Amino acid sequence: MIHEKHMEWISARGLDPQLAERFGLKTIQREGKAWLAIPYFDGDDLINHKYRRTSEKDHRMDTGAPLALWNANVLRDPKVRSGQVPVVITEGEWDALAAIQAGFPLTVSVPNGAPSSETADLDQAKRYEWVDRHADDLSHVAEFILAVDDDKAGHYLRADLVALLGADRCRFIEYPFPCKDLGEVLEEYGAQRVAECIGQAKPYPVQGLYTVDDFPERGEVRSYSIGVRPIADMIHIVPGTLTVLTGYANMGKSTLMNAVIAHTLRYHFPVCVASFETDVRPILVDGLRMAINQCSKHDLTKVDCSDADRIIRERLTIISQAVDEDMEMDLDKFLSLCRTAVLRHGAKMIVLDPWNELEHKRKRDETETDYIGRAIRAIKRFAKQYDVAFWIVAHPTKPHEGHKKIPGLYDISGSANWANKPDYGLTYHRPNFKDNIAKIVTTKVRMGLPGRRDEVEVTFDFRSSEFHAVAQ
After folding, report:
1. Sheet of 144-147, strand order
2. Is the overall model pTM greater than 0.90, yes or no?
3. CATH: 3.40.50.1100, 3.30.1490.20, 1.10.443.10, 3.40.1360.10. Which one for 4-203?
């Protein structure tokens, strides 16, 4: 039987002492002290006890006893095995009794509380040996309600239980202030509130699976003019998106990019340029100065460049290996520098020109296609996370001798991911290097984004550093 003092302690927690007695709790003497003993059964077999001192925080178990769930026999209830009702899992027996008292008899408790740190290896963790012991019974449970403590240790336990039992089968409980477990809810608010907490348990998030209510209204897409008049309606600068520009080498892609970057610097926001093939001074800087001032290279010595120089100095950041050629510029290093440009300098547009100048480190047994897919996903995550417009210049494969069709995203060296994953695709193509005539083609515009798939013939006016559409 339970000692009167222990009866008072149980009642003070809002629990019914008679309920505790029905589950076999009793007062025993150990080492000259009175302990509350909680029996653990597996079927009819008594396999363990938990002991608690109520006057001080002291918990013990039977030496050598197996780790098993408390009240584990409910896992064999026909309603549980048929998937009709969920099983509540608590962090301790007292919280389990609170749930049972509130009308949820199909409740179990882990035998040893919550871990004090993250579990490094769940398969080897001794504290979860009960999972193997009850593996068959647990496999028949359709749904678990995780009623663990709302503290750091409880969060570790919840993460472990989700990993062990499956996120798709788990719900979690939110407790009313100031409570962190079901026992405190019972003591503070009563059994009805405990029942409400369990009844309102929320599905544990499954990564990649959502309902429509998980998505906020997006509103109108924020977009900015590109600054190249012939294609002004065909493509826009949109934060959070990836644009890929392709075209054969030495045909004018960088001149087009200079026009876009200069316009963005002047009228929109700071830009970070990864300049690997182009010397920063004088080629990149002079190209931007010409585009901002709308003048020729010859006229740079005649016009006032102070405003253009101020814009470039204040709004342009550059990623380059020119200063330290031994620096390894792989994707992780590059994105780390991009992050610094965003946070420190306010960059809202990132330009990587060209893609092939990064040091591409593939994982063991990773194909080029798999690597490019992984890299583009990382870049798109970056663009969305930091709300930046990400532009990549990527070369197509070399054409066969005498054949120079207009290259598209599928022609970029390495992978069809270049066509599948970007939001915008753009091609700059000059059929003849000697002729000042080119085609700009928007090969891809993702649904819902401003712009359209189209093409236009252009010439480049070297006197004003501007592109003009060819009259049809």
Report:
1. 107-109, 87-90, 144-147, 170-172, 202-203
2. no
3. 3.40.1360.10
